[in-house]
């Protein structure tokens, strides 16, 4: 595959993930969101800019969430259910798979899942 094809494929994949059915959250080791997809924004009622000002602990209200996040950092992955708080104060249950990844030499944490 050539460079042009790779760029096109990456762009298409990005667009598909952004508007796809799953919620996608990318955070750094300090629990700051650095990327979210449009579906996550729509479900939680935030704009992308608003969500990117928040930390995982601002949205995930599951008891023990910080400990679970730390466990994921150590193990490299985690599967579970989290209670997410929407902008209007309501909550939704989020079944997710989370794991570490590297992008441009940065270690990041990606959670992908669906709301029940």
Task: Name the descriptors.
116 residues; alpha+beta
Structural write-up:
The chain has 5 helices and 5 strands. It has one domain (3-115): PAS domain (Beta-Lactamase). The protein has helices at residues 3-19, 38-44, 48-51, 56-59, 65-75, and strands at 23-27, 33-36, 77-85, 91-103, 106-115. By secondary structure, it is an alpha+beta fold. Strands 2-1-5-4-3 form a 5-stranded antiparallel β-sheet.
Low-confidence spans? none
Fourth-level CATH superfamily: PAS domain
Order of helices and strands: HEEHHHHEEE
The tally of beta strands, per DSSP, is 5
Radius of gyration: 14 Å
Helical amount: 25-40%
Dominant shape: globular
Strand content: 35-45%
**How many helices in DSSP terms?**
5
How many domains make up the coordinates? 1
Query: Which secondary-structure class do the elements indicate?
Result: alpha+beta
Architecture, CATH level 2? Answer: 2-Layer Sandwich
Give the gist of this structure:
The protein is of the alpha+beta class and 116 residues long. It has five helices and five strands, in the order H-E-E-H-H-H-H-E-E-E. The protein has one domain (3-115): PAS domain (Beta-Lactamase).
How would the blueprint of this fold be written?
Elements: H1 3-19, E1 23-27, E2 33-36, H2 38-44, H3 48-51, H4 56-59, H5 65-75, E3 77-85, E4 91-103, E5 106-115
Antiparallel strand pairs: 1-2, 1-5, 3-4, 4-5
């Amino acid at each position: 595959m050539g460079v042009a094809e790779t760029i096109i494929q990456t762009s298409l994949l990005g667009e598909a993930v952004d508007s796809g059915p799953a919620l996608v959250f990318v955070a750094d080791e300090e629990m700051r969101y650095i990327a979210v997809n449009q579906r996550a924004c729509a479900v939680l009622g935030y704009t992308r800019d608003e969500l990117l000002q928040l930390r995982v602990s601002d949205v995930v209200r599951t008891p023990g969430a910080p400990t679970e996040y730390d466990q994921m950092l150590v193990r490299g992955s985690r599967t579970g259910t989290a209670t997410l708080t929407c902008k209007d104060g309501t909550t939704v249950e989020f079944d997710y798979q989370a794991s570490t990844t590297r992008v441009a030499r940065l270690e990041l944490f990606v959670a992908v899942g669906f709301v029940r």
